[in-house]
């Protein structure tokens, strides 16, 4: 129901190939994240969120560089500085977290953004902007899962595994926000050229 394994393999191969051909630092960072698969950008976002101790939703250059290193996408200091200065539009010496993510996500058409938001709203039964196990009980039938059927997992374990698709591998909290959901699907989107195909895939996957 999330991005298919085939799309992930294609995305990783394509990103690694493009990485050797591009010199733009923002594009290089984007491709480094995408060469980890659909959840690459989402994982970097989570790393930065953990580092935001004071909850300011901004990063200074040192935090920015440390986050890249912690996540395993180290850039030369000059490259990191070039990205930072390009995105620090008001020259304040800090990056707005959401603006950075917006710049890093592969560009998506409005049709794609709309269907991603639609799928999230269908999942978010309580309408509080966060999808949890409780939300999933009404929209996702865990009893069809092979590990539930063979007695290996409980229903709750199936739900958690499902949410983990969208969660960062380094900090799984069992809660998925629209931002995380969009970060995940921007990765999937990068592996699909046609808007029409992406929208149909999402509608079929989420029964929209």
Kindly provide the radius of gyration, computed on alpha-carbon positions and rounded to a whole number of angstroms: 18 Å
Bin the helical content.
55-70%
Tertiary shape: globular
Total count of strands = 4
DSSP strand content: under 5%
Q: Identify low-pLDDT runs.
A: none
What would you call the structural class? mainly alpha
Determine the number of helices (DSSP H or I, runs of at least 4 residues).
12
State the assembly state of the protein chains: single chain
Question: How many angstroms does the end-to-end distance come to?
Answer: 13 Å
Mean of pLDDT: 85
Order of helices and strands: HHHEHHEHHEHHHEHH
Order of strands in the sheet with the most strands? 1-2
Largest sheet: 2 strands, antiparallel
Report on the structure:
This protein has 208 residues and is mainly α. It is 60% helix and 5% strand. The chain contains 12 helices and 4 strands; from the N terminus they run H-H-H-E-H-H-E-H-H-E-H-H-H-E-H-H. A two-stranded antiparallel sheet has the order 1-2. A two-stranded antiparallel ribbon has the order 3-4. Helix 3 crosses helix 4 and helix 7 (110-123) packs parallel to helix 12. The longest helix is centred in the first third of the chain and has 15 residues, at 5-19. The two termini are 13 Å apart. The mean pLDDT is 85. InterPro entries: Ca-bind, EF-hand-dom_pair, EF_Hand_1_Ca_BS, EF_hand_dom. It comes from Erpetoichthys calabaricus. One of its GO terms (molecular function) is calcium ion binding. Residues 39-74, 75-110, 111-146 form the EF-hand domain.
Outline the secondary-structure elements.
Layout: H1 5-19, H2 25-34, H3 40-51, E1 58-60, H4 61-71, H5 77-87, E2 94-96, H6 97-104, H7 110-123, E3 130-131, H8 133-136, H9 146-149, H10 155-164, E4 176-177, H11 178-190, H12 195-206
Antiparallel strand pairs: 1-2, 3-4
């Amino acid at each position: 129901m999330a991005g298919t394994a085939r799309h992930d393999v294609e995305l990783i191969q394509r990103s690694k190939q493009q990485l050797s051909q591009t010199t733009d630092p923002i594009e290089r960072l984007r491709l480094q994240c995408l060469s980890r698969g659909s959840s690459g950008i989402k994982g970097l976002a989570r790393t930065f969120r953990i580092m935001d101790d004071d909850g300011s939703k901004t990063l200074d250059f040192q935090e920015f560089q440390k986050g890249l290193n912690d996540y395993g996408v180290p850039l030369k200091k000059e490259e990191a500085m070039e990205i930072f200065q390009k995105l620090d539009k008001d020259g304040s010496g800090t990056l707005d977290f959401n603006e950075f993510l917006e710049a890093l996500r592969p560009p998506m058409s409005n049709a794609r953004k709309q269907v991603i938001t639609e799928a999230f709203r269908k999942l978010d039964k309580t309408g509080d902007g966060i999808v949890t196990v409780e939300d999933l009980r009404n929209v996702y039938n865990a009893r069809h899962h092979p590990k539930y059927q063979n007695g290996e997992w409980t229903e709750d374990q199936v739900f958690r595994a499902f949410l983990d698709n969208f969660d960062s591998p380094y900090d799984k909290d069992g809660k998925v926000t629209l931002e995380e959901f969009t970060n995940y699907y921007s990765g999937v989107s990068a592996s699909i050229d046609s808007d029409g195909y992406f929208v149909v895939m999402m509608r079929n996957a989420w029964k929209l």
